[in-house]
Structure formats: structure tokens, C-alpha cells
Amino acid sequence: MVTIPTVSLNDGTAFPELGLGTYNLRGEDGVASIVAAVEGGYRLLDSAVNYENEREVGEAVRQSGIRDELIVTTKVPGRDHGYDETRRSAEGSLERLGLDRIDLYLIHWPNPSVDKYVDTYRAMVDLQKEGRVGSVGVSNFTEPMLARIIEATGVVPAVNQVELHPYFPQAHLRAFHASQGIRTESWSPLARRSELLSEQVVSDAAAAHGVTPTQVVLRWHVQLGTTPIPKSADPARQAENADVFGFSLTDDEVAAISALERGRLWDGDPDTHEEM
Predict the structure, then answer these.
(1) Backbone torsions φ then ψ of 192, nearest 5 degrees
(2) What is residue 193's predicted lDDT score, i.e. its pLDDT?
(3) Catalytic site positions
(4) Gyration radius of the chain over CA positions
(5) pTM of the full predicted structure?
(6) Contact residues for 219 (Cβ-Cβ < 8 A; gap 6+)
């Protein structure tokens, strides 16, 4: 079993430096995959209403027998924005998860055309005060959106989960997060369905350290100070993904991988994007 180190969020929560994405992990096989990940050392589980697998995640948590060691994440979908709507959405998630607390609650997508994300965040902050939610955060928020909710509520999000990988390293946003004490969490950390893992600088680093290209990219995330959440149903691949804390990339390797930047890969509404 791999021990995944933690960092402290701005609310004091010990937050793993790497987690498990659970998109498409459904049914009995999905439960088994999540349980295997927990047995392999994962302590951060990332779900969402739109993944339609909160029941499976909750069942895996119960089967693990270590509820208090786990951080279960779920997200408010765009269709549930608004103060009262968010509170109802949270209750639905808690019921499906079968848990008495959502450890990390995120706004899945700011849904700017509706422009209710401030009210949504206010509801989440109140749920946190009531003990129904542990940490509160957001996903796919820009710097101006973050500044707006901080000014409106006085509560800095613990996490902003965004598309982030070597093709889209988001240096400016990461710097803003660091200045505010917001933890950056990376969705699509391996830029799947791209040629990232075949890039020469990634292959060279893998050969130099005796690891796989996947491990190189995930280690790059860790050294940038972000928490990647790779998804895999396969226990062997889960173990490979988590085994990135026994080596370090050089500064030159990190810079060379970051220099692969070309922009975001995923367009459209991430509220329903499968890569999340």
C-alpha cells in the first residue's frame, strides 16, 4: 500500500497530494474498483452528481471500514444553482452517498449565464457551518469569479478544481491560488486522448528515473503543488498512479514538461464533461 502525503488546506483539513477520479465507476464493478483504490492507499475520492455514482462511492466508503480517513468529494451541478436549490442538492447527495457529511463540496461549474454561483456558494458556506459539509470549494472558476465569491462571503474556497496538465499548466491561475491559500486540484491530469505520454521530454524523464511516463506527469503535478485526480478502474494502474512519491524530477525536467504548453484541450461545459 502506498502512503500518499497530505498538505493542509486553508481550513486546516489534511488533504492528499493525489486522489482518485471516479467518473464512470458505477455498479458492482465500480464499487470494487473504488474499494481497491482505498486498499491501495487512496484517501481522496472525487465524485459528482453528474457522474451518477454517488451511491457506489458511498458503498465503497462503507466497505472500506475507514470512513474517518477518507475525503469524499461531490459537486453541485449547474442545474441546481441558487441558495435553496443548492441546499436541496446537498441533501440529495448526502442521501445517495449514505453519509452524514460531504467532506469536500464543490461547485462543479460556475454556470455564468445563469449567474447564481454566489448564492450557491453562500448555501455551501452555511452547510459547512451546520456541519453537513467539511470543506467548501469550486471547480472551473477563473480569478475574477474567485475574487467575487471571496468578496461576497468572506470565505476563501479551500480548493479550485480545474483542467490542468502539461499542455495547459495554468501558471497564472496557480499563482493566484497560492496567493489566496487555495489548493489547486487537477482534472484530466494526464490530458487523456492526447499524445502527452509520448512526448520526448516525458519519455526522457521516465527513462532517467526508471519510472513510467504516467508517473512522470503525475509527479510533475505534485511538484507544482497541485493535487491530480487520475481515474482508473484497474488496481494495478491505480497503484502505478499513486507511486509517485519515491522520486523527484529535476527543476530542468519540470520546466521542460511545463514548456509543452499549448492551451486547454476540453471545450464546452465541464459540468458534464467526461474528463472530469
Answers:
(1) -60, 155
(2) 85
(3) 51
(4) 18
(5) 0.95
(6) 211, 244, 247, 248, 249
